[in-house]
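Table S2 (continued). Query chain:
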Amino acid sequence: MPLTAHFFEGKSPDVALVIAGVHGSEVSGIEVAQWILVKLYRRINADREKGRPHYTTIIIPELFPDQAALARQCSRRDVDPQLQTLCDDNHSRGGRYIPVSQRGQRIVLSQTRGRTSVPAGDNVSNYKFIEPNRQFPPPALPLSYLNRRPGPTFPDGTPIPGVPLLDETRWLLQFIEFYKPKRIASVHAHSIPNVIEKGTDAPGIFVDPRYKYDKRGCLNDPMVPTDPQKQRELGIKPNPFETNPCKFDLAKDPAFPVIGLIKQLNDTIANMNKDDPKVQNVRNLIEQTQKLFAGEKENHAESRAKAEEAANEAERNLNFRRVRPTSDIARTRDNDRLALEIARMAQTEGARVPGNWLGEMGREVMHYAKSAATRPGFSLGDWGPVDVKSGTAPSGPPVYSVPDKDPGIRDGAPVITVEVYQYPESGAFRDGVQIVDEDCKPLDPKQFGPIVNVPRCKELQAYAKALLTIFLDRPA
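Corresponding output:
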């Protein structure tokens, strides 16, 4: 299905891009984008000049409209057996993942009178499902790199088996390469973990800052032993798509308490006598922490406790001194402040952002915590912030060179990820059409329609207000 994008001329020619619906199941994020559109159109209609945002603005409210329609129908439980299969967690997870045929062809779900259906003659059991946010080129490489391949690749250029490049992703990449935005916001949604603690994913507003990608340096993950034999013994596989060691100062970042502590310990014992029993004891505790961390999904309680045990042992016997975590990280400071200001305003307006830990002054969390194992591929947050320059790139095949006049040459842009609190929308829009005003009251009181969740309507507008005021209206 073709993309629908809304274009607003700004006071500056610099472009800001807002995307929602990368995962169709995250319909609350789509509603946030719809509210930004409502507020922008109202301002511009009232005063065309004063109502313009600072940045020239492009908003794509639904990257995968058919998947969003599926998610809404799943939530109503108004589905036939074929669609019920797509609603199950074991399949598309209600629009989160994209169905493709066994030959890798995109399956577009049919829309008839507001009802979603599987194309005639299809059997859902024959579908495969693609993670749409793992479709991007290796950092520092343009779309033209993927155009020469069957789909997304590993950093060394090897295709990811069975994963085609989706048309919607190709169109999004073309948008980014043509307009070359200075900042990007991707609006998602997130469920609430059983335990909200630093180091685990939670709703909030985060940033992937501009950074330099190094195919080897980015693999220096403190939670993966450097010795391949030890990796095999512990059952830990390096993630070839790892980028966090290049993006963040892991030792100081409050978003990564376990990872940061292990990095500090690794750095401390790196030049010590490996045969010293005291060093060996700390190293064994580090390895136990790494193994626990690799197997955890919900939270990192066990690995955190083991990391603390290792740190206490190193303090007693190896003169180890911990680094105090801080949210004031010098190399990502400007990008982090942007995310922090959006999060603070969103909370002030009534949005819930527990993953940002705004109550801990100086130790707020601005970077997305490391998730459990994800599907292979690079995300928008990996690719978007990195410059694409002509010449040999630091990723992809060793011999790959970006042509001098490649349309994808651009400066990297920080990517703000908005993880809205929970998935449900408020009901303020019906099939993309607004049915209540900004006070969450019916536009047509005579029209009988679905019940609108007023508190939810106001909360989702709080995210929209923060993005409009800080992300789109405030100059860098």
